[in-house]
Protein: Ras-related protein Rab-30
Organism: Danionella cerebrum
Amino acid sequence: MEDYDYLFKIVLIGNAGVGKTCLVRRFTQGLFPPGQGATIGVDFMIKTVEIKGVKVKIWDTAGQERFRSITQSYYRSANALILTYDITCEESFRCLPEWLREIEQYANSQVLTILVEVHQQRAEEFAEAQSMLYLETSAKESDNVEKLFLDLACQLIREAKQNTLDNNESSPMPGEGKNINYLSCCSTN
Ligand SMILES: Nc1nc2c(ncn2[C@@H]2O[C@H](COP(=O)(O)OP(=O)(O)OP(=O)(O)O)[C@@H](O)[C@H]2O)c(=O)[nH]1
């Protein structure tokens, strides 16, 4: 018997090198990895968050175009998508509309999307225009990383309680069996 009430699937997406892996490693392991190599395909990490009975499964996807067909297959059963952008990389900002098209095409229509690691005003405006949640983070300084995942978990719990999330049994992540316990209970008390 698993010791959690909620299990949420969170997938990080965004251009190569914007800091997805560092964000996940900061959150799951509390460290900023030196010399982080590019992600190949998809990496998986799991963490019990500091909300009673909640676990988050995190998929860190490769930003490189050549892995796109692999990573797209992980969108469908995600409860939340973290769309990352790097303040120092103009290209990663310009690609945001493209990522939103990907989300529209491959993700569940109920998916919660948050735009992160954006420090410029225009990005805040972009998130607002798309009705997206928005947060600035730094994996290196450990700014807002815990808050990002905890806020997402809280929002997902609220939505789950309103029964707005799909029952995901019909669309497990690639390679998963049907035994993943998704939203197995409706109480966090
Ligand atoms: N200064 C600073 N550098 C960061 C931060 N997060 C990531 N980096 C650097 O950005 C580079 C890329 O980080 P990754 O986490 O590997 O990027 P990624 O988005 O996972 O890249 P792919 O796996 O290729 O998609 C690394 O050299 C990190 O050290 C941050 O918060 N601050």
Notes: The chain has six helices and six strands. Confidence is low (pLDDT under 50) at residues 175-189.
